[in-house]
Each structure stands twice: as C-alpha cells, then as structure tokens.
Amino acid sequence: MTNWNDETPNFIYQENEAYPIPEKYNKQNHSPQVVVERIAESGAIAVKTYYEPGFDSTKPAFPVPSIQLMKELKEETHKNNLVLVAHGNSLEAHQFLGTANVDIIAHGLWNWETYRLEDTNEIPKEITRVLDVEIKNKIGYIPTLQVINGLRTLTDSEFLNNSELKNVLPQNLIDYYKENTNNMYASVFGDAPKPIIINNFNRISNQGKINLKYMNDYNGLILFGTDTPSSPTFGNPPGYNGYLEMIEMKNAGIPLRKILASATIENAKAFQLDHLYGTVEKGKKANLLLLDKNPLEDISAYNSILKVIIGGKIINRGNLSADKNEN
Fold first, then answer.
1. CA 1 centroid distance within chain
2. 89-113: per-residue pLDDT in tens?
3. How distant, in Å, are the alpha carbons of 138, 162, 170, 236, 316 from that of 167?
4. Phi-psi region of 122 (alpha: psi -120 to 50; beta: other; left: phi over 0)
5. Whether this model's pTM surpasses 0.85
6. Closest listed residue to residue 254, CA positions, set 185, 312, 208
C-alpha cells in the first residue's frame, strides 16, 4: 500500500492510511477490483498480498490492510478465478488472515510475539486457537521453515564447506561468501552477540516446527514452499533449499507421504493447476524427477535424482551442476 512505483503498478490504495497517494496516481486505478483485473489480464494464477506490520519494533509500523479491504480483495480475486495468497508469519498476521479466510498463507506462524515455546514443548492456547481457525477453513499453510534456518546460518560459516554447495553455487560466489561472512552477519544482526542470535533463532525455528506438527496432527492443509531467497543470507541456496526444507518438515514430524503430497498434488490443487500438474497422468505436463530411492521410505530420496524431465525433455542431473558449468 505504500509502494508507489511506476514499475510496480499493482498497489492498492486504502483511504484510512496516513500515506497520501501521490497526485500523479489515479486512485480509481488502485482499487481491489481494478488491480485484480489487471493482474488477471497479465496471465497470473494468483494474487499475492501482505499483512506485515514490520520487523523492527523501534520503527513506525508498516500499514496493514483492513479486514474490509482484504474481503474485497478476496472477492475480486475469486471473481477472476485466481488464488489469494497472503504473506504473514506473526501471531497478529495469522489472526488477521485466518479471520479474513484467505486461500493460502505464505509462511508458518513462527513469530509468537509475547509468547514463548517453553521446555514443556507445549503450544500456548493463544497460538492453537489461531491454527484451529486455519485448519477449519482449510487455509493452505506454507511453513517455509528454512527462512529462519537460513538466517541462523549466518552465525555458522561452516555451512559454506558443505560439499553439496559446489553443485548449486559457483565457486567464486562461495569464496565471496566466505570472505564476507562477518559483513553479511553485521548487515542483518548488527553487533548482536552470536550466542544470543543462535538461541533466539533456535527457539523460533522450533516454534515453526511444532506449529507445523500441530497442523499435520489436526489435518491442516500443508503446502510446500521455500521463499528462496528470503533474505541476504547464503543459508538459502536456490534449489538445494527445497531439499533442506523437506528435511526440516521431516524433523518436525511430518510423514513422508504428506511431504510428497505437499510438493505435488496439494500445491497443484491449491493453485488450481491440478489439471496440468501434481500427478503422473496422460495429458498432464511432463515435469518429473526420476529418483534412485523411494521418497516414501527415505527423505534423502529427494537428493538421489537420476534424471530431470522438463516439458518432456530429459536432462541429466549432472549437467545442471554449477561446478560442471563453471568448468
């Protein structure tokens, strides 16, 4: 609502916010109806919006949508046969988005605000009440556990010695990260001591995992996503981050069959693409991974790719390696 930019025309104007729209913009072109129609005409499959008051409590909060505005946005989104996806990761955001009954919430509820995961590993009732609304309304829940882990990785330069990274990132980029690890840490966390950051992010990560387990145990709609890259960190490497996300989902207690479904048929259904994707059937898109192991038996199967098939074209996995292409 405050991103006035000629290159990003799909902002929505909200009358009650104290951010006056620049005179060069016509308010009528930034209503939910006009914005969603413009997005639909572009060929998009979804409308992505935000409920984010901000990440720094010492600074003024970002503007957030009213419940009426979000309901209008949802109505217009569905009228145009699109899916309404909303960013949110805090208790406040999930309370709002659950009440607004959006289709998908992109991010798990890791930020419990004043609540904390204690040694008992019990979720506060204030948190479960919010999750129960999302479960009841069948709102898609994308946990994106690796967002938190990727930030925490800035405290651990050993991550860059992971032998898998040579297939994902050019060596000169890995070398750059190694040389600039401290600068990258400072750009995100300032001069905060690493032990404090590690403890806080371990707690937040565990909060995200225990919430995901709750969603699974009570039949919530779990979808797959990574938000890569989520922030200025080397801890969310493209592609490989999806595998790390799957490992974290398993660590959270999600059954392997649910992980497979979340990354295939459930995502396809949620984004109204199951006529093209999600299962192996005649007439659907031939985008496949051929694995050397069974993903219903071992999470490591997702890193045992024999062949990649895109649009029916077979590609050897090794040909996609950053190490091979660099040489």
1. 21
2. 999 999 999 999 999 999 999 999 9
3. 38, 10, 8, 14, 13
4. beta
5. yes
6. 208
